[in-house]
Structures
1.
Amino acid sequence: MFMPERLFCVGGLLIGLAAAPAGAAAVTEGPRLGQPASAASIAARDLSVFPDGSGLPPGQGSVETGKAVYQTRCATCHGPGGIGGSAEELIGQGRLDGPTPDKSLGNYWPYATTVFDFVRRAMPLDRPGSLDDAEVYAVTAYLLYLNRLIPADTVLTADNLPRLAMPNRNGFVCVWPEQP
Amino acid sequence: MSRDHVAAGGLLHRRLFLQQGLAAGLGAGLLPTGTVRAMTDEPWRHVPGQPFTGYGQPSPHERTVIRWISANSQAPGNGISWTPLHKLDGIITPNGLHFERHHNGVPAIDPARHTLLLHGRVKRPLTFSLDALLRYPRVSRVCFVECGGNSNAGWHEEPLQTPVGYFHGLASCSEWTGIPLAVLLDEAGVEPDAGWLIAEGADAAAMNVSIPLAKAWQDTLVALFQNGERLRPENGYPLRLILPGFEAVLHVKWLSRLQVASTPVMARNETAKYTELLPDGRARQFSFVMEAKSFITEPSPGYRMQGAGLYAISGLAWSGRGRIRQVEVSADGGKSWAEAALQEPVLPQCFTRFRLPWQWDGSPAILQSRATDETGYRQPERTTLIAERGRHGYFHYNAIVSWAVAADGSICHVYA
């Protein structure tokens, strides 16, 4: 079938005007070959955990369980108790405005949900995705405990994790879109 | 200073190389008498050469032109490799030399099983197969990709002594070809309250970041091809994002999921990393645009000047804000400047090659370059940048780079 070259531009311009925000380039027309994605297929792939807790799975984990999981699955690289391994140190409480600031989970990360999100998607490095949700909650609890952010008897859940106020929650200045 | 000298230290007018007399003089000096006759006696003139190859490789004499790898010995897939910019010319980086940053290795993706999911705040959540994506209209864009942590040794107290590519080479430049992301967003129908797009890779780190939706609509590509061929595995095969001018962590490789959202996800790589701590303890976040940068690649540390005479200074400049408008070169540590020639094409958010002839008199000199982009932004002095940002930001270092040329012809990196 003969397709005039200009179709991509002409058709797209109309659609672009309808859907794209002001300032966006005119949208060209595509063949529209995307297949509808079912809610189940999306849920199976959606790993995002937002600061408000959306995306957190059901489940819970205690500091005590987390210590056991950590020692089995994390300590080889991160060292016993969060320091002293080949991988990044996981403990830090020092000031960020001193001459030798030490950016770490405890004193720099603005959201506790990010700890859960990152451990679930990327850790442990040699077998990412091998911890179940309860183990991820538990390891997250242990890391927050090591940083003196929660007491030793804490059980972390989808409800209390996003409500935990990290010390550096307000330490970031968004430079987009002011920059440049 | 003679008529042809436009700045101190022997910097000549940028157009002098184009003039016949100078060009002829250079050529004559480089060709020893008798060379032509000797070439006919070389063995490769008298035996058949090698047969054809399915995919060509560089000459074995160029085997030292390689990426320099720096990775965690306990986790060899977690690290970086640098583009050897000191060994390259022009503006295009060969695919095998494009810099790398992997968080947990290069995934071995079967394209027949790879799909892109587009969901979240959209009217029609969609899945795209590779076969489907390859039927979409494609566009090409030549642009740089630069890691936000490129040049970070510049923050160190002491100047790093290493070839320039292993200092500033977490930056490369390619022709990227793919589908405007706006076409796919339009097909899915973005809800009006959405402002961000969470992109995620299919690697073992499931690397994810938040992208402003405005950039996604504007000029972001879902790239399938790099410099004419399908993406290399280490550069995201079969699918990656390209966001011209934005720091490279956003150009998600092995792209498998795009989630339209009303807020950023606050991933590790946009909170704990790729944010710049300021002296007052606050940190810059979502500092996406890579600022104007330039440096001289020839001569540079690792080169040795071969006595007084005429040299062709060459270097690279780019800006995430647009085109490079001007590059100036100094041979006296910034006291005087000469305007370099910008080699065409000069494209927005793209490596730009500059050149300038230099008559070196054999005495110590300090070579510098500084770039100005089309917005008027000029690459800062190192002291200015550090006064603004402190020394613990790690990312987005773009200060003027200085090479000290000694009388013996050696070259080292200095803070000047």
2.
Amino acid sequence: MAMDALVRQGRDLRVDLFRGLALWAIFVNHIPGNWMGFVTPRNYVLADATETFVLLAGYAAGIAYGRIMDRQGWFFAASRVMGRAFTLYVAHIFLLVVFAAQVGYSAAALDSGAYLDELHLDPFTQAPYRALLEALLLRYQPSFLNILPLYIVLLAMFALALPLLRRPWLMLALSYGFYAVVRQTDWSLPAWTGEDWFFNPLAWQALFFTGCALGYVPRGGKPVALGFRWWLAAGCIVLLIAGAAASIILYFRWDIAEERLPQAVASYLAGIDKTAMHPMRLASMLALTYLVAHAVPREAGWLRSRPAWPWVLMGQQALPVFCTGIVLSFLGRMALEMSDRWPTQLGVNLVGPVVLTAVAMLTAWYGVEKKASRTASPLPSPAGADTG
Amino acid sequence: MLRVLTVLALLLPLPGLGADRPACDLPPELLHPEPLPAAAAAIAHGHLHILAIGSASVLGAGGTSPAAAWPERLRAVIAARRPNLDVTVEVRGGRGLSATDQRHLLNLALGNGRIDLVIWQAGATEAVRGLPVDGLTDVLTPALQQLRARDVDAIVMDLQFSRFLRANADVEPYREALRIAAAAAGVPLFPRYELMNHWADADSVDVERAARDARPAEVDRLNGCIADALAAFIREGVREARRPPP
């Protein structure tokens, strides 16, 4: 089968492309010490792959479950959403087991417990049964395993809020109102460690519901969209340039930051948190989305070009690619733990994207084959929905 | 200026140095000292009272003895260079303490007597436990600003470089948070992570690659390197504070 045939057409390929890029960036950013980490957007935008992933996950959910709700009602659509959340939950628990095995293995291999503050890195050695319980309750989230718990809670909130899709402005008003309250009160979900979740879902929901509102297409209607206004675009550009300048100075030209950056600016930047989605990060992500949506036409030919298709394909098969990316990042970190010189760097950054693309191809092929066998059989096919 | 510093650091005797291994140098591009006016004023009056606050490493975890920990080594390095200076290094901290715990210890210590310079080794516990990053900045920035308001100098020391830690904990967000919190308070950051990474790459000192029985000696060696680098960092900060404003 031609590779291009695996890419599902008839959908907004821009969304798939950027989702694919976000999945790749999540893989890269989950490997501290990876040189590719210097080129991912987090270095020059005050929003990174996690924000992109959440926004586009909301977008995909808005399209798919909105359609199901319009056809089969809220209760059925909500059940489907919760089914998806359960799949994510199972995937999360699987990744957790992989993580625990990895920590145990490398702790034994390196024996660094003596001088590092690693006492709590692996609660499985200290209180295994409690750790297991807390992990099942999502109250214990080891490093690198905090995106799926966020996504699971967002989907659960979405299942309840589904009917609001039909009144998108009301949904957005409620969502942003709640976001404002959460920012003011510091409400969050509790973690086992006595602190809060690494990503606060109560704040991150604003981005997710924005995605839902943009994605949902009412029957016979048009989706929510902001038309092109030059002053709005100019505002977005100014915001992103300011964010880029600040990020580049902070990450790469630390000497400038210390000598010339006014302390007030540094103070402001210090307050930009990712945990509860600081308004600057939210605004940067929205500005980026607005500009990209208007700069890249939906029908742009290059979206169907050969260099674009691996990313589009990855974006279309988001869940398996995400999980594979997390597992691969474990392996990448182990490899860099052994040696972080250029041969390993090269290997990690070649093998990673190739395997991710292969997984996306395999999943897409499986989907195509399944569909083909269903069309051949006399049984009526249920309405298919994919979100990821 | 920093080239001079590097040369000075190279001239310092490094105990336990194997003949075939390079000394732990101080690459000038890694260190950006800032003026330490309180320390400069204290030295002019013949004393320097330092408070080292942090988690396991301030107590010399993994080394041969508590005397081999970097705070004690720092005191020894400064005392050797300035025999007439009354230098003390007080240590507060312990394994697994978060920035909130450390701030509490800091406030207690500040109530006990004059301190000229606080070296705050922060972020390790947060990174290891995967605690929310904003919790670290929320504690650190106001505490550092408060120190400045009280005319106490501060240096923020970041995480240890370790391949194990890097593979098993999400270190980058915490390193960034420490850097930004220090900048927000106008306080210099001592880049322990980058220095240790550099020394490991140059094979000057690499605890994780040392044989298990040689490990405590290697940790001592690391503490010696950290102490020398810190001493040079402080020296340069004091020099900058004395420089007349342009």
3.
Amino acid sequence: MSQSSTPQLLRPAQQETTGTGRRVLLTTGSSDAHTWNLVHLQLFLEEHGHSVLNLGPCVPEKLLVDTAQLTRPDLVVFSSVNGHGHLDGLRAAEAMRAEAATRDIPMVIGGLLGISPEGAEERTADLLAAGFDEVHADGTGPAALLGKLATLDTSCPARVAA
Amino acid sequence: MTRAPSATHRAPVTDLGAYVRAAAAAGELVVQPRMGMARPEVMAAGVAAVAGLAERTVATITLDSYTRVGNHAAATAAVRANQPLNGFPIVSHGPRIAAEVAARAGEVPVQVRHGSADPMAIFRTMTAAGLGASEGGPVSYCLPYGRTPLAESIAAWRDSVRLLAEESRTNGVRAHLETFGGCMLGQLCPPSLLIAISALEALFFAQHGIGSVSLSYAQQTHHEQDAEALTALRILADELLPKEVDRHLVLYTYMGVFPRTVPGARLLLSRSAELAVRGGAERLIVKTEQEAHRIPTVEENLIALRGAAAQARRTRAELATEAARAARSERRGLRAVRPDAEEVLMEARALVTAVLSLSDNVGTALQRAFHRGVLDVPYCLHPDNRGATRGVITSDGRLRWAEVGAMPISSSNRTVPLTSARLAAMLRHVADDHDFDAQEAAASSEPAAETASETVVPLVRPAQQPAAEQRPLRIAVIGMGPRGLSVLERLVARAAEQPPRQPVAVHVIDPHDAGAGRIWRQDQSPHFLMNTAAKEVTMFSGDGDGGPARPGAGPSLAEWWAQTEPETADPEGFAPRVVYGRYLSFVFERIMMSLPAGLTVHRVRGQVLTADRLADPAEGVYRLRMSRGDVMNFDRLVLATGHPTNDLDCEQRNRAAFAAAHPPLQYIVGDSANDMPLSHIPAGAAVGVVGMGLTFYDLLAELTLGRGGKFVPSDDGLRYVASGKEPRILPASRGGIPLLTRGANQKGPLFRYSARLFTPARMAAVRERGPVDFHAQVLPWLMAEVNLVLLETRIKVAVNAAEAQAFVTRAVGELGCAELPELARLSELAARYCVDTTLITDLNRLARPFSGMRFGSPEEFRKTLAEWLRADLAEARLGNAEGPLKAAFDVLRDVRQTIRSVVDFGGLCPESHRRFLAEFNPVAALVSTGPPPLRSEQFLALVNAGILDPVGPQARFRTDEEHGCFTICSPQVESSRTRLDVLVDARIPSTDLRVGQDPLLRGLLADGVIRTFVNTWSDHAFNTGGLASTDAPFHPIRADDRIERTMHVIGIPSEHTRWFTQVGSGRPGPWGSFTRDADAIAGALLGTGSAAPAAGDPVSAGNAR
């Protein structure tokens, strides 16, 4: 599993979280090579007391599902900026929802999800239908995640399993 | 789709390397887009459009991201379903279609751009289509963009590169590969690592049979640093690559977050074209104005290509003009300023050397290098990258190392905790800067555009209103440290009191934070202290009045500090320099919030390179060229460039060369401790230090406190608890002593000393009589004043204040009416009070307390020095009002302005001026600019701890060829010869325009717009090296002796024409010269001050020759 380990500098300082801290699995599309969004989101979420496992760029659906099964995160954050986010995101959601162990893990997606603004509403509808809990339009700040993290049910079995 | 290659699908191929070489020979930059569309007919139209431009272009076929990651099935499915893709799926379309698309380029070369960690299928399809030019690299297309293990990528690239080389040879084509290593995540990777990876990838290509390569570099955050990087990349490539390998440099327009506005994006693009030409790149890959928002259209790409080519031609023409100017400078004996690629080259070379020492096979060496962290890309999430490094944008806009991990280079930057907000700000830095700059440029050129349109349609111009009045007066304040800020503060305060007659647009220009400038910038050690008490420092020209802080009324440093940082502030003491930096930024921000109608202020981050006189007065007077690449026109210039950086003198050059030839010996020279790579000094090294002034105290603090040491109270002052990381420090000064300790401050910030014997009136009379001999006519009165205070204080302490006053009255009465004061008479008058009547008669004696003494051992000298310093500290603790000695020395500070009134603008005769600067000036600094008592206590503690080891008087530094080191020894101290691992020159460079490195001042000097102040009397002349100027409002004097009324100079550049300009703050209460100078310039600029210097100013205009 050396593929999914994160480098030293950005490895979360602690896996355990305190109080309202949640465990976030941060991922992107299998075709998306961008990482600045991931580095920034990791720092942001950690500053707000959450623990982050960052899968890095070009995450195959299988790696996402396997890691989610293994680590049982409170939330999967899917961030994509290469314009293929709607296609990659659909496959990721379908893969997560197909497995019993990962079916109920909340998922949100955001970023530049299509190569042009046209069809944004349709893309959002497709992604919600595929199983994302929230779809954030391009330009949404990372603070939007905090609301979702705050509403997560603390009695979620995923936390106990960790 | 990837069936056996068939020779029938080949496109006619133009050799990319040869094409670029031919363009370079013709003096033209090759421009190229990034362009990829899914559908063949659309892609073909794009290729044809690019090839059809009049510019020298290379056409591009950029592949989609499914093809990039080898998911050809998904790409094929998307093509069949007519789903959009972000590039051309070359493998899905196959070689026949690829060849047809490429054929539309005609004679123009076509390059396939992809981003794949395993390009085998892509290269197979390409070669089957007859195409031979592509790009990428085993590192640059692996680490940043995916999760393929590095070892796999290196193996895949090795096989793919060999295939490309061989198949192309079979096709009769010379394959060309461009490294992508000059990009690495697009941002925040410092240039040295970019060019090292770029060069290593080129070597990798060459090792696997590629005969034509290009080395990439992506534009980063700083124009000059980028130009240096390109220069270094060229040198590195020539050092590494076999001679027969064809090569050129390719620049990428900024690859990070792009400006959001069209003008901002256009500005960044045109600066990249300028950079390509200035840095010597032969090819440029552009971005478009829409880059931040979406994938651009073909038409948008064409606009970008045309724009870049046009800018490249303009820059080339400007370079020719500059070359002519440089030739003119050379004739005048001035050296042209060239980009100094040394720093980035040394770092990159260290990286490349370390990598290549790991294996003869570049691929293997690269893999080992990343495994060991010898190469380590900042912020890269790839599992095979260590991730222990960090690049940051420093306050001057350069991209530098904050963390170097295990790489064989060092970092001298302090680490500020990385937060998501700071990362976001750094990622947006270039975008924000360009959006801002473009907006500013538009704002300041708007009226000009109106004028232009009115010229076209003259009927609408109102007859009574000439166009010139429409335009604001454009003022450039060059240098935004405390002096520039003082002028701005007075400009805004005056404009608020009385609206300017004409709109005024002020541009404040500095590469560092506005307000603080380089010396007070915020990324410096918290251990560096100011040497003026916080209470005596203000940047507002009036005290706070309860209203909001604004020009003319605001808090002093002490007031502001106590209010904003209550937990840490020590308003009674001396503030760290970073605190003053923050205060200066605060003052600047307050000024920006208080702008009155009719006055605008625009900040420009950058350095001014040249000022050219405009031929057409309607356009302005000067055209300034900025380091960031653009030009702006102005009507008035204020030169406030501050502390100079000078060429090394002969001795310094020899020392630098000796150190360079004898690694690991180090020679460090720089004007401020903050600009010295002190972190390079290893623990335990013997460090010689030339000079024991304020810079010495800074580096002492950084090498001890800055390395984790602590001072704790002990019975006799302080004790130093070492961290073990300290070097051993061996400082030397002419007298063997540090600066005298400043007396504990007992005077309020509003205290102003009123001299009794050394009066302004008396000195005015002295000056009136003609050229003055300082030592004969001025110094006796100054010493009389010093001794008057000495005895007065002794009497006040021993008897009472009334008797002290009686003594003063009698002494002034007796001495005051003589031609010259008789010092002995002071002793006689004081004798009746039964106090010590010894006088200070010889300042030189103070500076050389150990003159003529011999010491049997270094130990003996240290003991004597410690006793001397303890005695000095005891005097200092008595205070600057109650302590007789420190009160007397304080006179030298208090009467500075009276000394200036005699000395400035050619008051002294040449011989006396020379002697004044050589003898009086250093002694005055020694006794009146010293550090606070705390620093002297720390000095003693460090001597006791064995970390500080002052060498002795008249110490000499020599080179030791046998041991490859420097040595230091004092002829007055037996067995004091010591070998040094590091030599630091801690003397602050003095103003001398002839050796200063500021490109603007050099250019103005070469053009004769300014000249140095040559003090001339009958047949004596003394060239001081300072900038010659008039008295207030301080216009420079041209080489032909005319007054340059469109310019003003303030502060350190005019040192020697004036005396003691190294003052970085005003003082609360009545204005001193710091504020008066600024106000005089502000008044002249707004046309509301006293008239320009008229006949009453012959002192400077006439005598200063």
